[in-house]
């Protein structure tokens, strides 16, 4: 229940989920130590499992550390609207081929004479316009 609430960005689930991830990190570390002991005793079969548990422990610990970052907390708590939700019918997001500015365009109305509002370079290359039979306006 806590994990689903955390993935749905419920505020109450922030620290309980961090605690669960921390407990998983401790469990992975204990399994790492058990397998390290068995590898030292001569059981080479535990080597792969030991490496996997070591990596899982380290990764989980890093994930817990993220929760102490104010930027991560802000990103978790804030609602970030998707830019696609504000588009009108027929519009789509596209990047200017020159400056990579993200623009809302209507592909059916795009022509070789259209320029980027940021860099003032053409949004449609002359080669592309020639291939599709568009004429300069």
What does this structure look like?
The chain is mostly helical and 137 residues long. The protein has two domains: 2-77; 83-131, no CATH class. Helices cover 50% and strands 6% of the residues. It is built from five helices and two strands. It has helices spanning 2-7, 14-40, 46-66, 70-77, 126-131, and strands at 92-95, 102-105. It is elongated. The relative contact order is 0.08.
Which features does this protein show?
6% strand, 137 residues, 2 domains, mainly alpha, 2 strands, 5 helices
What secondary-structure arrangement, pairings included, does this model have?
Blueprint: H1 2-7, H2 14-40, H3 46-66, H4 70-77, E1 92-95, E2 102-105, H5 126-131
Antiparallel strand pairs: 1-2
DSSP strand tally: 2
Alpha plus pi helix count: 5
Globally, the shape reads elongated
* Strand portion: 5-15%
Helix content: 40-55%
- Following the backbone from N to C, one meets helices and strands in this order, namely HHHHEEH
Overall pLDDT confidence? 86
Tell me the Rg in angstroms. 26 Å
The largest β sheet comes out as: 2 strands, antiparallel
Distance, first to last CA: 60 Å
Please summarize what this structure is.
The protein is mostly helical. It has helices spanning 2-7, 14-40, 46-66, 70-77, 126-131; strands at residues 92-95, 102-105.
């Amino acid at each position: 229940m806590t994990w689903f609430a955390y993935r749905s960005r419920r505020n109450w689930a922030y620290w309980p989920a961090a605690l669960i991830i921390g407990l998983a990190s401790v469990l992975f570390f204990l399994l790492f130590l058990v397998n390290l002991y068995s590898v030292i005793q001569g059981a080479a079969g535990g080597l792969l499992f030991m490496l996997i548990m070591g990596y899982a422990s380290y990764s989980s610990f890093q994930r817990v550390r993220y929760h102490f970052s104010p930027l991560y907390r802000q990103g978790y708590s804030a609602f970030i609207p998707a830019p696609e939700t504000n588009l009108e019918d027929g519009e789509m997001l596209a990047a200017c081929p020159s400056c990579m500015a993200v623009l809302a365009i209507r592909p059916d109305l795009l022509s070789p004479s259209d320029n980027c509002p940021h860099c003032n370079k053409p949004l449609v290359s002359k080669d592309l316009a020639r291939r599709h039979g568009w004429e300069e306006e």
